[in-house]
């Protein structure tokens, strides 16, 4: 049987990828933009809609970034509103385990699950930087090595809260006057390294029992967390079968070792696409988009994230900066996830790429940061998505675009029908919950 | 006389503890979107200024100071801000005001959530600020320890001080929420291709709030909401909460039980804030002698209830907030009977005119930077 491709739509990255100068670019904050993107994803029978997180505005040398799109809504609030204008689409929020408390966040996610009829998902992330902490009561107290401890314990508490009510706890029998079947519904207590909480949870068991949990996790702790009692789905950074298959198989093996049934941890890489009628046109269109995304100034700033030095004096059309990185200096850019763990290695690698291809500073930045996974005709892209999933590269993709809010339109119009022809994408929704969409079982719960 | 404002306070199955057993009640639906959409649509049919959606971090209890073990009343509730966001796109005119607890939550999250509610409702958002700390609330978070409060120690100076501090903290909380709303100028977004700048960073502002309980730097991640400042409300039963409202709120809900008390409250509040609403529990089905509440219970026909509202309005109340005893029965009676009666008396609007909640309440428009 043909394996079904899981599709998520990721809207509105607030970074260089989102082209605000394009004449077709719309508002990044008006509800109409979110509504359009979510309804387009639902028209394409996507599994879920996905929003990233931002808790602070980025700064460079103490000044707010002004060249990228900024300004975003509160994630849970906008997803709750989207539940009104969609019917089947999962609603996945990226939410931080550091700058939230389990009781409040579990309550909000269970509420979203009720109000969407079982479509809530949570991408759990952690953060430990004091820069973000300046917007919160907690400050930036968390040691880097404690991030997974906190995330894991946070998730354990949240699941205990969701399980504190059973499906049969509300009888609401008008005749006998009995509303609850037991007086202690919602009761919980947890004591651990990060949290010491107890009381009664206010939200009765939600349609999915527990919202779907997603997580990024390429590190060894992340993989183990993913496999054992952790998330229902994880993000993967791998887009070639050679890299993706071993990761995919490792996750399956680790999950099996934890006694989880096959297919219970989904693997989902993020992916961007550029479409055109011919391959040549697609490549040209990608080139134009990448040059619009990464201006000379933008290229300097992207490289500064790794050099951690002011590179504004280096000609974007000249060679790579001839200085070493300054990893121990005060951060030149704040509020942005660090993606390159070892700057010296990364830069050495970039130098050899630049030398080999005779790339300028800007061309190298475009090569590294303007990469798009799927460039081609609708048929080429459909074939590659299909083959990747059928050959254990992943269970699906989280599709983003360079344009807000209409970027997904052409994908839904032109690629989705081809996936449906190949039998790897539904032509209609079968279930009602996000778990139904993903083929995940509904947790029964342990309370009562 | 100024236009009368009418608000409706929604809570579970209604404010009467047995409301869920009413023949028309839908207790199995309390946790569904359809239930709340239906109530808000009904209030909008009655041209109500705004609905409030009650909330508390703790589970309901007949004991004000601790959870109870009763099984004969509604227990369980959803997050009110998310209910508000869920119903906003399904309505067009009515203001939507969820309750938010200020004691354990993050002002940054609350500020962006209410700003977002203002976006998804295109200018109809408000918030009711609630001060927490009772009934095992601190243990839910496990971050702070407050001594347990009970009827026995309520008057102890230490407990009174603790309560006053929680209200001070709430005032700081609202100040941060408001200053974050005001941290982006309206014209901050410039999309200037020529200079490659999406925003003019000179038009984003750090708030640099440093208080006794928290510090928040800002600016917000969310641009200035459509109303600039969504409407801030609070419920108060005495001097301490009145002072919070004077410092932080646009609308104060109070609970007078007779005309003399109603006059005294207005005298004490003395125009800060300018909009004072009297809370009334309405029971069209008649009195229930066993039912007591913090607010005055008015029972009877639409004409009798309208008399009491008119009296409060004449005393100087900007409006009343009606707490339907039984949902949807008493809400339907408000729209079908009470509103037409107030319209006949020339006290209440016959159609919605203004597009934002601030405009409807006659609150002055605020220019960017008014709070800086």
Brief write-up:
Chain B: GO terms for molecular function: monooxygenase activity; oxidoreductase activity, acting on paired donors, with incorporation or reduction of molecular oxygen. The complex is a heterodimer of chains A (448) and B (372). With 448 residues, chain A is α/β, with parallel strands linked by helices.
**Oligomeric state of the chains in view:** heterodimer
Our estimate of the beta-strand percent of chain A is 15-25%
Straight-line N-to-C gap of chain B: 34 Å
CATH H level, superfamily name of the largest domain in chain A:
Luciferase-like domain
By CATH reckoning, the class of the largest domain in chain A would read: Alpha Beta
Which strands sit side by side, in order, in the main sheet of chain A? 1-2-5-6-11-12-13-16
Class by alpha and beta content of chain A: alpha/beta
Question: Quick one: overall form of chain A?
Answer: globular
What is the helix fraction of residues of chain B, given as a range? Answer: 25-40%
General description of the model:
The complex is a heterodimer of chains A (448) and B (372). Chain A is α/β, with parallel strands linked by helices. Chain A folds into two domains: 6-277 and 375-438, TIM Barrel, CATH 3.20.20.30; 295-369, no CATH class. In chain A, 37% of the residues lie in helices and 16% in strands. Chain A is built from 14 helices and 16 strands. Chain A has helices spanning 31-43, 75-85, 102-115, 130-133, 147-162, 220-227, 241-257, 279-293, 296-307, 343-357, 361-369, 378-390, 409-421, 434-438, and strands at 6-10, 48-51, 59-60, 63-64, 90-96, 120-125, 170-173, 178-180, 187-191, 196-200, 212-216, 233-236, 266-275, 333-334, 374-376, 396-400. An eight-stranded parallel β-barrel of chain A has the order 1-2-5-6-11-12-13-16, surrounded by six helices. Chain A has a three-stranded antiparallel β-sheet with strand order 4-3-14. In chain A, helix 2 runs parallel beside helix 3. The longest helix of chain A is centred in the middle third of the chain and has 17 residues, at 241-257. Chain A is globular and about 80 Å long. The mean pLDDT of chain A is 92. Chain B has a single domain, classed as Alpha-Beta Barrel (TIM Barrel). Chain B has helices spanning 33-45, 80-87, 107-120, 137-141, 157-181, 239-248, 259-269, 302-315, 329-344, 357-360, and strands at 5-10, 50-53, 95-101, 126-130, 189-192, 197-199, 209-210, 215-216, 231-235, 251-254, 275-283, 296-299, 319-324. In chain B, strands 1-2-3-4-9-10-11-13 form an eight-stranded parallel barrel, surrounded by seven helices. In chain B, strands 5-6 form a two-stranded antiparallel sheet. The two termini of chain B are 34 Å apart. The mean pLDDT of chain B is 95. The interface between A and B is large, with 75 and 78 residues. Chain A: It holds the Pfam family Bac_luciferase. Chain A: Residues 26-390 form the Luciferase-like domain. Chain A: GO terms for molecular function: monooxygenase activity; oxidoreductase activity, acting on paired donors, with incorporation or reduction of molecular oxygen.
């Amino acid at each position: 049987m043909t394996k079904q491709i899981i599709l998520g739509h990721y809207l509105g990255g607030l970074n260089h990828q989102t082209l605000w100068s394009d004449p077709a670019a719309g508002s990044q904050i008006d509800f109409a933009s979110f509504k359009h993107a979510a309804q387009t994803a639902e028209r394409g029978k996507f599994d879920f809609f996905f929003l990233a997180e931002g808790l602070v505005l980025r700064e460079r040398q103490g000044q707010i970034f002004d060249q990228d799109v900024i300004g975003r809504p509160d994630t849970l609030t906008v997803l709750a509103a989207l539940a009104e204008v969609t019917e089947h689409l999962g609603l996945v929020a990226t939410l931080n385990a550091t700058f939230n408390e389990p009781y409040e966040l579990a309550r909000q996610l269970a509420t979203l699950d009720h109000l969407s009829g079982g479509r809530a998902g949570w991408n759990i992330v952690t953060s430990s930087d004091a820069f973000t902490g300046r917007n919160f009561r907690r400050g930036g107290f968390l040691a880097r090595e404690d991030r997974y401890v906190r995330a894991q314990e946070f998730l354990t508490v949240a699941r205990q809260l969701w399980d504190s009510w059973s499906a049969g706890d509300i009888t609401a029998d008008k005749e006998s006057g009995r509303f609850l079947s037991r007086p202690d519904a919602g009761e919980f207590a947890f004591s651990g390294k990060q949290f010491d909480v107890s009381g009664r949870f206010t939200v009765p068991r939600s349609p999915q029992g527990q919202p779907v949990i997603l997580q990024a996790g390429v590190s060894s702790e992340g993989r183990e967390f993913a496999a054992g009692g952790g998330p229902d789905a994880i993000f993967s950074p791998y887009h070639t079968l050679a890299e993706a298959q071993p990761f995919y198989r490792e996750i399956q093996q680790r999950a099996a070792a934890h006694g989880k049934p096959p297919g219970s941890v989904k693997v989902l890489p993020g992916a961007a696409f550029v479409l055109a009628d011919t391959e040549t046109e697609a490549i040209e269109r990608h080139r134009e988009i990448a040059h619009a995304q990464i201006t000379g100034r933008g290229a300097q700033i992207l490289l500064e994230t790794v050099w951690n030095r002011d590179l504004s004096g280096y000609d974007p059309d000249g060679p790579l900066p001839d200085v070493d990185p300054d990893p121990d200096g005060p951060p030149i850019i704040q509020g942005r996830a660090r993606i390159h763990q070892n700057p010296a290695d990364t830069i050495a690698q970039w130098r050899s790429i630049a030398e080999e291809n005779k790339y300028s500073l800007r061309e190298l930045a475009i090569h590294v940061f303007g990469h798009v996974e799927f460039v081609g005709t609708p048929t080429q892209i459909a074939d590659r998505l299909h083959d990747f999933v059928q050959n254990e590269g992943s269970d699906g993709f989280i599709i983003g675009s360079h344009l807000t809010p209409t970027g997904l339109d052409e994908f839904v119009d032109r690629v989705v029908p081809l996936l449906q022809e190949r039998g790897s994408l539904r032509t209609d929704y079968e279930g009602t919950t996000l778990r139904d969409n993903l083929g995940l079982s509904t947790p029964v719960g342990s309370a009562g | 006389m100024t236009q009368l404002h009418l608000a409706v306070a929604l809570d579970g199955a209604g404010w009467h503890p047995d409301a869920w057993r009413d023949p028309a009640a839908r207790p199995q639906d309390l946790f569904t979107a359809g239930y709340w959409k239906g109530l808000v649509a009904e209030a909008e049919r009655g041209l109500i200024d705004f609905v409030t959606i009650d909330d508390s971090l703790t589970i309901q209890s007949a004991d004000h100071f601790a959870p109870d073990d009763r099984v004969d009343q509604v227990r369980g509730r959803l997050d009110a801000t998310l209910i508000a966001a869920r119903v906003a796109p399904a309505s067009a005119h009515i203001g939507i005001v969820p309750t938010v607890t200020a004691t354990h939550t993050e002002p940054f999250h609350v500020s962006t959530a209410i700003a977002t509610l203002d976006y998804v409702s295109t200018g109809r958002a408000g918030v009711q600020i609630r001060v927490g700390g009772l009934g095992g609330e601190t243990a839910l978070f496990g971050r702070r320890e407050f001594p347990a409060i009970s009827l026995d120690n309520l008057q102890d100076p230490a407990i009174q001080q603790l309560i006053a501090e929680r209200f001070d903290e709430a005032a700081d909380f609202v100040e941060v929420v408001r200053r974050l709303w005001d941290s982006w100028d309206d014209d901050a977004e410039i999309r200037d291709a020529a200079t490659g700048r999406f925003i003019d960073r000179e038009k984003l502002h750090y708030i640099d709030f440093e208080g006794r309980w928290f510090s928040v730097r800002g600016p917000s991640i969310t641009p200035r909401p459509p109303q600039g400042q969504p409407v801030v409300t609070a419920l108060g039963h005495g001097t301490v909460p009145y002072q919070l409202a004077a410092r932080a709120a646009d609308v104060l809900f109070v609970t007078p039980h007779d005309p003399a008390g109603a006059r005294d409250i207005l005298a004490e509040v003395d125009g800060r804030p300018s909009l004072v609403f009297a809370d009334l529990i309405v029971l069209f089905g008649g009195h229930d002698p066993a039912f007591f509440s913090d607010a005055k219970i008015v029972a009877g026909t639409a004409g009798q209830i309208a008399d009491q509202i008119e009296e409060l309005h004449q005393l100087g109340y900007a409006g009343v907030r009606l707490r339907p005893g039984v949902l949807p029965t008493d809400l339907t009676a408000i729209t079908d009977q009470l509103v037409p009666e107030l319209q006949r008396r020339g006290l209440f609007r016959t159609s919605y005119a203004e597009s934002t909640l601030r405009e409807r309440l006659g609150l002055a428009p605020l220019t960017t930077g008014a709070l800086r």
